[in-house]
Design a protein that fits this description.
three-stranded antiparallel sheet; single chain; 13 helices; 385 residues; disordered N terminus; 3 strands; mainly alpha
């Protein structure tokens, strides 16, 4: 198995074989397996992201089937419950195991997954508007979304700056150290841009709406440019070095996140621009959503094909771990991106592919969720036995 080496600036050396050491670190100051809270890490919020996107993507699909919206609302409620449980558990984790919690922020692999909590918050907030409003009412849904989006955006912006800063100043990475998880800290602002657009119609017209639109567009650019830089680094690493450790193969799918989410964001901002900016600029947003969206969507489809091929090639050696949730949320953003392009172009191609990708998303979610439940109850994901 390939060994990835990280060196910090104090010249100490750390080796991580696969993700077993970084993603399932044994707790310090607690006996192995003594308490499930000791192993809780920020990557667990990917469960909320992956569950929430199943619901949110269903709400955007061009296809409408009887009972589909009700089922999606139940999935959103499940994701919201998971977020509540994980938030409480993570707070207890910080209180009872502060050394282990701080170690996550210093680990060159695990610290990347601090991007998951803010995206989980915003995913549930958007679901409140898209689906939860049927249950709790639109006024309450808007209030919930404002709280979760605002909190997630602040945390996401901090993550997008703090994690690269720590990488620049605290660690020295070999050329073969890059993996898909490096994208996790910089994607939250793109999620803020896409899901913040849903709130713009609920803001007073004039400067408040304009400010929100400009902020979303700035976060769109912040995340997009950083993601393009990192995707280039990842492509180079995959091309010039040994294959990723088996435990990290699933992170290849994370590239789909900024690609699909950027297409979704461009479409969402075009939807709300007419009420926030003059008509000539609103028309520009509409044109941009198509001229940017289709080429980016095309690259996303190429990467999806590569990700499927790479996963199939290494399928027999891939151990199950929490990186498998990378099969869900990034794929879900491709569903929402395809639906957005269908809305803005009317091309049936995007509707058909959105439905096909959603079917793939459901299959991936079913497999990963089942393995996660089994790993918690009978395996060592949290060592609850």
């Amino acid at each position: 198995m390939t060994t990835v080496t990280f060196r910090n600036h104090s010249d100490s050396t750390r080796s991580v074989s696969g993700t077993s050491a970084a993603l399932h670190r044994a707790p310090r100051g607690a006996a192995a397996g003594s308490n499930s809270l000791a192993k809780l890490a920020p990557n667990w919020f990917a469960v909320v992201m992956g569950t929430g996107i199943v619901a949110n993507a269903a709400a955007t699909l061009p296809l409408r089937l009887p009972g589909m919206r009700g089922a999606a609302t139940l999935v959103w409620a499940l994701a919201a419950a998971l977020l509540t449980v994980l938030a409480v558990a993570w707070a207890l984790h910080w209180r009872r195991y502060p050394d282990e919690a701080r170690a996550h922020g210093m680990n060159p692999v695990m610290m990347q997954f601090y991007g998951a909590p803010p995206m989980a918050l915003m995913t549930i907030g958007a679901g409140a508007l898209l689906l939860g409003s049927d249950v709790i009412g639109m006024r309450a849904a808007v209030a919930v979304d404002w709280v979760l989006w605002s909190t997630g955006t602040v945390l996401g912006l901090l993550t997008a700056a703090a994690i690269p800063y720590r990488m620049f100043t605290r660690h020295s990475f070999d050329q073969d150290a890059a993996f898909g998880g490096w994208l996790m800290p910089v994607v939250p602002p793109m999620v803020s841009a896409a899901l913040g657009a849903l709130l713009i119609p609920h803001i007073p017209a004039g400067q408040p709406r304009l400010t929100m639109l400009v902020a979303c567009l700035a976060m769109f650019g912040l995340s997009l440019i950083a993601a393009f830089v990192l995707v280039t680094i990842l492509w180079s690493r995959l091309l010039h070095h040994d294959p990723l450790p088996m435990g990290m193969v699933a992170t290849v799918w994370l590239v789909l996140g900024p690609l699909g989410q950027s297409v979704t964001a461009a479409g969402a901002l075009a939807n709300v621009a007419p009420g926030a900016v003059p008509d000539r600029y609103a028309a520009g947003f509409e044109v941009f959503s198509v001229l940017f969206g289709i080429p980016t969507w095309g690259f996303a489809m190429l990467w999806l094909a590569l990700a499927i091929a790479v996963t199939w090639h290494f399928r027999r050696g891939m151990p199950f771990n929490m990186t498998w949730w990378g099969f869900t949320f990034p794929l879900g953003t491709c569903v929402t991106g395809s639906s957005a392009l269908y809305l803005h172009t009317g091309a049936d191609l995007f509707a058909v592919i959105a439905v096909a990708l959603y079917a793939l998303l459901l299959a991936a979610f079913t497999v990963v969720a089942a393995k996660t439940v089994r790993g918690v109850l009978y395996g060592d994901l949290l060592r609850v036995r």
